[in-house]
Amino acid sequence: xxxxxxxxxxxxxxxxxxxxxxxxxxxxxxxxxxxxxxxxxxxxxxxxxxxxxxxxxxxxxxxxxxxxxxxxxxxxxxxxxxxxxxxxxxxxxxxxxxxxxxxxxxxxxxxxxxxxxxxxxxxxxxxxxxxxxxxxxxxxxxxxxxxxxxxxxxxxxxxxxxxxxxxxxxxxxxxxxxxxxxxxxxxxxxxxxxxxxxxxxxxxxxxxxxxxxxxxxxxxxxxxxxxxxxxxxxxxxxxxxxxxxxxxxxxxxxxxxxxxxxxxxxxxxxxxxxxxxxxxxxxxxxxxxxxxxxxxxxxxxxxxxxxxxxxxxxxxxxxxxxx
Length: 323
Hints:
Blueprint: H1 3-6, E1 12-14, H2 21-51, H3 58-86, E2 91-92, H4 94-127, H5 132-135, H6 138-164, E3 173-174, H7 181-186, H8 194-226, H9 231-260, H10 269-279, H11 281-292, H12 295-320
Helix pairs in contact: 2-3, 2-11, 2-12, 3-4, 3-11, 4-6, 4-8, 4-9, 6-8, 8-9, 9-10, 9-11
């Protein structure tokens, strides 16, 4: 679909990473594999934290909702890009673009909110262990998760409503694999993007507040851990907190770089790779990062796999009457 045709249509053309059809197919397959891996990892986390009675603490409750957000976030951008790449169109309708903005902004803010709550949970568990059950009671955890999802919906609504007021001028070509707000702002007519900028500034302030809360929590955590006399105790705490700290740092740093740096008229390969770092990699790697050094999660996964093998063995025996 040519740029000239795009100017007469209500939708947009997602250019992505290459105009070469063979490369587009290769990229679509790589994205598809990444999506399947990320979806499988997050689905396993959701399953075991729901079914395993030993993984019902607040930490795993928040981890389950983080995996739900990650799975949803991956489903917002990748399937659309894979479908349009394989169809050789790159076309996305105006309605689909607005829906992508709503859900992507909602899930991104929900992830930041969940990471903030998780850091507070670790702070209470390590620094205020005697008050943990009172502060992180099931009712309060439910309210915290509800507040995260509600604030995510409000964030998505604000970004979508402000984007709907934009009039787009010229060729409606987006140099990205999804409807990214900074790229859309380049297509707006003069003075039409003021509402989006206001929302962006407000959300940036709120994100900074979350970052300060996370920094305070980990400052207190590390101060407490370093005073522990037991090396084994320090190692256990670090193995629990460091994966979470890595996820938070990676998500915030890449997202901040992408949204704070000026958008160029001709994005480079590094600009496009940066977008992958904050949209695709965090939700894909989160399940593996959190389970890598978590013995309880690894044992729960083994138990789940063994139970599936056991069910299969029982089924085979019942069919062939061989047991």
